[in-house]
Amino acid sequence: MSEFRLYNTMTRSVDALTPEDGETVRMYTCGPTVYNPAHVGNFRTFLFEDLLRRAFRLRGWNVDQVMNLTDVDDKIIKRAAEKGLTIGQVTEPVIEIFHSDRRYLRIEDAETYPRATDHIPEMVALVEELMKKGIAYKAEDGSVYYAIDRFADYGKLSRLDTREIKSGARVSQDDYTKENAQDFALWKAAKEEDEKTEAAWDSPWGRGRPGWHLECSAMAMRYLGHTMDVHCGGVDLVFPHHEDEIAQSEGATGETFSRFWCHGEFLLTDGSKMAKRVGNVATVADMRAQGISAAAFRAFVFSTHYRKQLNLSPDALDAATEGVRRVGDFAERLAAARGGTPALVQIAAEAERDASEALFDDLNAPIAMGALFTFIRRANGELDKGGSDVPGLEAARHTFSRINGVLDIVPEGEVVDDADEIEARLAERREARQTRDFARSDAIRKELEGRGIEIKDGPTGTSWKRVR
Ligand code: AMP
Ligand code: ZN
After folding, report:
1. In the predicted model, is pLDDT for residue 172 greater than 50?
2. Topology of 4-264 in CATH?
3. What would the mean pLDDT of 162-176 be, rounded to a whole number?
4. Would you call 198 exposed, middle or buried from its count of C-beta atoms within 10 A (0-12, 13-18, 19+)?
5. Cβ proximity of 331 and 416 under 8 Å
6. Cβ-contact 258, 233 below 8 angstroms
7. 33 CA from centroid of ligand 1 (Å)
């Protein structure tokens, strides 16, 4: 088996990765702050994490992924206070939208989606431990802060010069109860707004609520132990969020918090050319309204390496849509074929090798996509010969479903398995039309359309094709 290599922000190099226990990759992915539906930029990060977990499984490992939901923070409290609601009333519908958007994009379920508000005791215990070790202190305002100069490794992930951090001490003067301006809040003393919106809990330091960084440390260790394999997020999280998570967790346990730190670059949505045709595609709802399929968005995101910035542009989306059409046509052709040529066995083996090697080499999705397209071109060439070799066809199908199973450009399963079933539904529809039961024939059409099957009635009968 080939090595799996991944860029580690901690070492600034592409390093070989194996799960610590040899079997299961334990990964933590910082999740959304649920006060507004996540935007397409957030979803670029969640898609790269989805691809990473699928690549781990392709490599033969199990995955235990935790994605937190930040359901208490300043913005949520502000929104709740404005509307006279509790934070739960603000976050509940947003969490539902998050999961439905995620499913639309075929982002696999993580094993656990813990909510911050369900883990207050774990957070309080972590702060107590830091207090006991003398790394945290209670300030006059009733909040508890982390003393960064009592953790020697502070700054090791973002490689900020600690002295520079400390010299900033007099810059920010609003929070003069802190010992050092760069100390960050672990526990924030409750304000009236917090009480009113049910964002305050009891603690040994009085009523209050957790800081954002604390949530992730406590939940990551609760579900994945003191040391996990991979911790992911967007680049903006390197500092201060992940730096502070390390300070809290390692400060408390004295053990390495995460063996790998993996960060995805930003999706830029402010390209000037955006305005006209793509309009303001800010959320998955906008995407759906504009007819951008999950397949197109996945292909678009995977066209660029996760460590490079990506511009959301109409041209890039068009190119992705065109690529998706080719993959879809090929999937249909494979499903309908009755045989191929013996050469397909070799072609399939090469494609599978090239795609997996690319994914195992720092998750190189664009190269893997290239391997898929090369495979389609070569396999189409063989299928054009109209052979009847079954092992060749089987190899091509198997490889296609392996590669597509990771990139998930066309929905898995549907394509290869349900052609017969669709034909049967169409026969039923024909029958309904013959008996002038149009309500029933319309219902069947709607059902098939809902599954991404487009039906065309012509003079020679009904044809169908997959449109997503
Ligand atoms: P948030 O809800 O702001 O905590 O962000 C959730 C995730 O989305 C984090 O991993 C962020 O780093 C990531 N993120 C935020 N903005 C973008 C963007 N424009 N492109 C890619 N990822 C982003
Ligand atoms: Zn986090």
Report:
1. no
2. Rossmann fold (3.40.50)
3. 49
4. middle
5. yes
6. no
7. 9
Calculate how far, in angstroms, residue 241's C-alpha sits from the geometric centre of ligand 2. 6
Please state, in angstroms and rounded to a whole number, the distance separating the CA atoms of residues 392 and 379: 10
407-418 as b/e: b if 16+ CB within 10 A: bbbbbeebbbeb
Q: Give yes or no for residue 37 CB within 6 A of ligand 1.
A: no
Which atom of ligand 1 is the closest one to the Cα of 45? 22
Q: How many helices (H) and strands (E) does the chain have?
A: 17, 14
- pLDDT tens figures, 439-449: 888 888 887 88
Query: 233: Cβ below 6 Å to ligand 1?
Result: yes
Residue 248 has pLDDT above 80, yes or no: yes
Mutate to test the pocket of ligand 1, among 29, 34, 42, 309 (most ligand atoms within 8 A of CB): 42
Calculate how far, in angstroms, residue 174's C-alpha sits from the geometric centre of ligand 1: 28
Round to whole Å and give the CA distance between 64 and 100.
21
Q: Residue 34 CA: which ligand is closest?
A: 1
The number of the ligand 1 atom at minimal distance from the alpha carbon of 32 is: 2
Architecture of domain 268-412: Orthogonal Bundle (1.10)
> Would you kindly state where each structural domain of the chain is located, as residue ranges?
4-264, 268-412, 416-466
